[in-house]
Amino acid sequence: MIRVLCLAAALVLALAAPAAAHTVTAGADLRIAQTIAGAEVTVVVKGTTRVPGPLRIGVIAYQPVSGPPIGLEVRSVEDGRTVTGTARAAANPQYTQLRVERTGPHELKLSAGNETAVIPFRVLVERDSAGEFLIYGGLFVAAVLLVGGLLTGATARPGRAMALAAGAAAGVTVAAMVIVFDSQVPAPPPDGAAPAPTTSTAEGRPYVQARMETVPAQPEAGEEFTLRVDLADGSTGRPVDDLTAHHEALAHVVVTSEDGRYFRHVHPLRTAPGHLEVRLSAGRPGRYLAHAELERENSGGQLVAADFTVGGTARASAEAGTGTESGRTGAPAKQAGTTVTPRLHPAVPVAGRPTTIELDTPGGVRAWLGMTGHLLIRSQDGGFFGHVHEMGAPGSRVRFTFGFPEPGRYLAWVQYATADRIVTVPFTVNVTAPEAR
Ligand SMILES: [Cu+2]
User: Fold this and answer.
1) Ligand 1 centroid to residue 267 C-alpha, Å
2) DSSP helix/strand/coil, 271
3) 249 C-alpha to ligand 1 centroid (Å)
4) How far is the CA of 269 from the centre of ligand 1 (A)?
5) pLDDT value, residue 335
6) Helix 158-182 crosses helix 2-15 at what angle (to 10 degrees)?
7) Three-class SS state of 435
8) Is residue 419 within a helix (H) or strand (E), and if so which, with residue range?
9) Cα 266 to averaged position of ligand 1 atoms, centre (Å)
10) Distance 315 CA to ligand 1 centre (A)
11) pLDDT tens, position by position, 347-406
């Protein structure tokens, strides 16, 4: 009987491994896309497990990057302690280790060329939960009592062995109960987390009042200019500095010429609280549209639109960056020497019904902005802007489903990253009304 009990307890002990680690947000990497010094990169700050300790920072490049490495500076907001280093952007970057002394709010300053970005982030370290203490404690107590029970049983003192075995069973029961119920109990906030929101923010924050403008107000064709995004709180008017990284960026900005021949999908740099900036240039005069997607913490996603005019005369200069300035005649787009034609099902999309858009990606795909593919769609007049993703695993094609809101002509761009560049495939879509069929 005692031996049976002990065996049963031993079996439970062997099977009841402690619950797998909780969803460790504190151990998660921070990934922020940035358009800096004309290059599209993603900065990765690896999750930390201890402080003081190393913070690993790498910069992923999506095209070959030359020039000096990117300057890194990590500063603790609480005590001002600053550590510096450099990182070379590469497809598979080396991670630079900077020693941080404490958890809590920090700022990462990136410098490349004459541009600087300041990214706020928190160094978080997971605390042990009370549940884990009970699981390991219960199993430890059970193990001690079980060994005692086995030894006592072996020395023929059945009464005491029985008591020890019962104690072991109780320890296992506590551990098992905690394993079952601990997943339903919220884990303690990690060390260094922001204070819990007060009741005033519990029902959400107001939308951002966003203003986009160019500096200078009217850029010249072929000249570099700055597109600024200024963010203020709708109720207080103060700068908004609580953008969440969504799709691996603080803001996604798409700039297109009215005719759609110019296209840039960029990720502005945070230069100060409530201020984002990105440098651009456009080769042709005319009207341009800017659409910005951003998401305020505890508020929701927003789409902000603006337009501006480029003056001067057309320049035939090649334009750098992750864009395209190709002919848009509805003809198949050229991509790395191959002709690529997106396939639409149905071939003529109907407003208000889903359309499947599929594109072969013979050069292979790697994730960019957390997705294998991006589809951006603008109505001819710029009044509508849509953005959907290919969520599947990287493969030899990307596929999207999109519902066009109204009949009419739309400008569309598929984007994906290969091993050494970001490919942009422009095309146009004519959408019919449902009754026209
Ligand atoms: Cu983006």
Assistant:
1) 6
2) strand
3) 7
4) 12
5) 45
6) 20
7) helix
8) none
9) 6
10) 27
11) 999 999 999 999 999 888 998 998 899 999 999 999 999 999 987 788 889 999 999 999
Read off the pLDDT band of 196 (50, 70, 90).
Answer: low
**Are β-strands 70-76 and 422-431 bridged in parallel, bridged antiparallel, or unpaired?**
unpaired
**Ligand 1 centroid from CA 251, angstroms:** 7
Q: How far is the CA of 56 from the centre of ligand 1 (A)?
A: 24
The CATH homologous superfamily of the domain defined by 326-437: Macroglobulin (MG2) domain (2.60.40.1930)
Residue 255 near residue 290, CB atoms below 8 Å: yes
Distance between Cα 5 and ligand 1 center (Å): 61
pLDDT in tens, 387-399: 999 877 888 899 9
Smallest Cα–Cα separation from 128: which of 17, 49, 16?
A: 49
How far does the chain reach from its first CA to its final CA, in angstroms?
Answer: 80
- pTM value is 0.77
Specify whether the CB–CB gap between 14 and 173 falls below 8 A: no
Domains 202-317 and 326-437 share a fold: yes
Q: How far is the CA of 265 from the centre of ligand 1 (A)?
A: 6
CATH class of the domain defined by 202-317: mainly beta
Where are the chain's structural domains?
Answer: 2-20+127-182, 30-123, 202-317, 326-437
Q: Which two tokens stand for residue 366?
A: 């790697």
Question: Which CATH number fits the domain 30-123, given the four candidates 2.60.40, 3.90.550, 2.60.120, 1.10.10?
Answer: 2.60.40
